């Protein structure tokens, strides 16, 4: 990987995926080249990183992410991730990553039992991953959150380990919108190449269409740094 | 499981031949909702008695829901009053699945609002969910990508024991289905009123985006073309009266009673959306129709009658979820998430490859032919042989009797002044009134509802609730997009349905202009009581007249919509026998760059707050009369469409000149509500003086604050643009004056009262969570 603008970032579409076009737009706005990947195709088309976007793959009828993780594309993603390829799972993508055991824990229904859509403030807890290196640890960012099954749960030993190893990537700031354990909004794997989070960075990449930002309503673009981070980490790799 | 039907070598079917041979056989037309004369008309058309399957088809297609038999004669006025000038942006008008509007640069949008009222009372979650599903399929059928939804909801009184059941079910249903489709919900309406107890209204609007060349229509042309049914399998859900046809008439021993409310599968619908868009992109679809009310009956008869020949269908090829369904049930089933396409034989393989890629089950069930007839076989026997136009388009049309209700004059005479409603006078009383309205269920923050809907998905939402209109980008390269707003004030409709409908249009039109968009086109959903009651029928006729005239006056054509009747359960002839007449009117406008759309509140200090328009003493039917006095009487505010037109032109021009930084329409609750909402939007207060209004318009402070006079908008401008705005307003003939300045953490009405924003926010935002959790 040499030049930034030649970085190819795959975006996987499962049946029921909703935010694939948004994720592709985010990659493009960050300066990368989005590459559409299809769930039924194991070929990752030579991409340098992969985004598993949000949605309701297979309707979430069994358990969020439980069916998608068996998709041929996921076998390749799991192999590539174990080899160090950056992978970002957003919302349903995060759920797929936990089902695929690339990240620990699981998501259950929000504690208040409603779907929740809001502009969510997060604290960056680990700015050393492939997807967060453009942030500073402790930085507060605002990106949209929207989910029904967003309550992150894991046993205490796992939670202790995640915290002890600095693998909590994001925490909810202020109100915890779904009852997630220890206010955890996103986590990373040991190597820092795989990150999953419930809120949606791809919806905060363009002035006019995101959450509120310093320059006014809908002006927030804090999500862009996720995609710039991965491009930077690929250049550095 | 072995299906009983398959045990018989050749089931006894009511074939065309059998119908001819047994003319005297009694048929359950009454149970299917057909009148004696309607049944006789079917016999006259066919020259024999209908088969059981034909009877099923006619009964659903001639129902009020599908045939518009009570409203058709009046709905024509929408078309008759469309001038050539109004048509200039119309690519497809009334009559198709939805109208299509040219918005420039080769882009078009299609939009429509539809009702799913009755199912939503019976089973709120599925009723609302499938309401969203149905309107989304209408939009796909036009060849468009569904791009946004809005929902217009009306429930019974907040404190009625049944209301929470309906509210929770409907809101989760709209959200559960819409969120799963990846469609941003950009706004809507939420009203509580005891007139909707037992008759909640669940209307849903969908917007779609397409290129001009992508328009698809519902017609079956080209002999030899294949008729393809794809999507979900056909099951026994959503069959209303049809189950009466089962067991007795044709296949004995078959379970017949099934739920009559459809069950939605949003995952299937999402897959269907993407699959259809890929089919359109590959140019393998000649004609397409979604399956909604009346299922296969509707799709086959409409496709065939809009085409140039005939159609033959074999029901044995329909993929079934339940193999025991009989022919009538298959024809009437309203199983969701199904589409019917007409495909050229040489493109069939490519069509099947695409549906296969999306794992969408597909069956070729028939063929277009030159017979001019719609023929349907089942188990190798002819069970339907009809002229499709007689099913789809030539149903009965009624000129139902209508008359001004006896109670109407009394209602109109009992205005707020005649009734002696006490008006607040002191500062404390005005303050308390403002807070009571701000926290009342109909004026309180809707975020308890809208926070359960995804407004970010697709990344094109520029504005959503609580701004005046939903604003969505269409073209990523230029920022070209559309604004949508819907409105209907049932209380105004009750006082005067003609004016009420015009006011609904006026407000939606004003909302679209308030965000800065130029209004282009209209969709409507007319929710009324029983057409068989002259009172309700009068309300419907008056509302259509009022709306058609107002559309002409504002030069915005109705492009499509829906009528929902029988929304009443009371004793006929009484004042409370039906819901308030509720003509939901949606207006679509265009913006050259959606990023310049104006939010409904200010976020900086030191801006000048300006009032556009004139205030009169108009408080009959107002939120004040309702919330404070529980009173409804008198006449609604005047509708002044010339003033609305000038105001809208001014607002569009001001947005283009970037004169304003915020704009908010004045409606229910008047100026007080508007100033409080605009201040709460971004948590910046305002100091307002009423002397300008009270002096110029000769009204007292109470009227200035709470009157619901129309054609008024609040705008905020930087102080250096104040003069420009006044100058521009003068050019457009719109009265304008400065009310005050933004800033601080209170709303102060000088000389009268002051409300800290924290207190206002708690009042405004606490209501719905407090009631519904």
UniProtKB/TrEMBL annotation, chain A:
Location in or out of the cell: Cytoplasm
What EC number(s) does its UniProt record assign?
A: 6.3.5.3, 3.5.1.2
SUPFAM superfamilies, alphabetized? Class I glutamine amidotransferase-like
In which domain of life is the source organism classified? Bacteria
Task: Answer yes or no on keyword ATP-binding.
Answer: yes
Q: Which CDD domains match?
A: GATase1_FGAR_AT
Give the positions the UniProt entry annotates as the active site: 91, 200, 202
Q: Which Pfam family, any one of them, does this sequence belong to?
A: GATase_5
Q: List the pathway annotation.
A: Purine metabolism; IMP biosynthesis via de novo pathway; 5-amino-1-(5-phospho-D-ribosyl)imidazole from N(2)-formyl-N(1)-(5-phospho-D-ribosyl)glycinamide: step 1/2
* SMART domains in alphabetical order: GATase_5
Recorded hits in PANTHER family, A to Z, give: PHOSPHORIBOSYLFORMYLGLYCINAMIDINE SYNTHASE SUBUNIT PURQ
Name the UniProt record assigns to this protein: Phosphoribosylformylglycinamidine synthase subunit PurQ
Species the sequence originates in: Myceligenerans indicum
Give me the gene this protein comes from: purQ
From TrEMBL, chain B:
Q: What does the protein in this record do?
A: Part of the phosphoribosylformylglycinamidine synthase complex involved in the purines biosynthetic pathway. Catalyzes the ATP-dependent conversion of formylglycinamide ribonucleotide (FGAR) and glutamine to yield formylglycinamidine ribonucleotide (FGAM) and glutamate. The FGAM synthase complex is composed of three subunits. PurQ produces an ammonia molecule by converting glutamine to glutamate. PurL transfers the ammonia molecule to FGAR to form FGAM in an ATP-dependent manner.
Catalyzed chemical reaction(s): N(2)-formyl-N(1)-(5-phospho-beta-D-ribosyl)glycinamide + L-glutamine + ATP + H2O = 2-formamido-N(1)-(5-O-phospho-beta-D-ribosyl)acetamidine + L-glutamate + ADP + phosphate + H(+)
Pathway terms, separated by semicolons:
Purine metabolism; IMP biosynthesis via de novo pathway; 5-amino-1-(5-phospho-D-ribosyl)imidazole from N(2)-formyl-N(1)-(5-phospho-D-ribosyl)glycinamide: step 1/2
For the ligand (Mg(2+) 1), the binding residues are 114, 562
Which species is this UniProt entry from? Answer: Myceligenerans indicum
Matching PANTHER family: PHOSPHORIBOSYLFORMYLGLYCINAMIDINE SYNTHASE SUBUNIT PURL
Q: What is the lineage of its organism?
A: Bacteria, Bacillati, Actinomycetota, Actinomycetes, Micrococcales
- Record-annotated active site: 65, 116 (proton acceptor)
Domain PurM-like C-terminal as annotated: residue spans: 223-377, 605-745
Name of the protein this chain belongs to: Phosphoribosylformylglycinamidine synthase subunit PurL
The record's listing under NCBIfam families reads: FGAM_synth_II, PRK01213.1
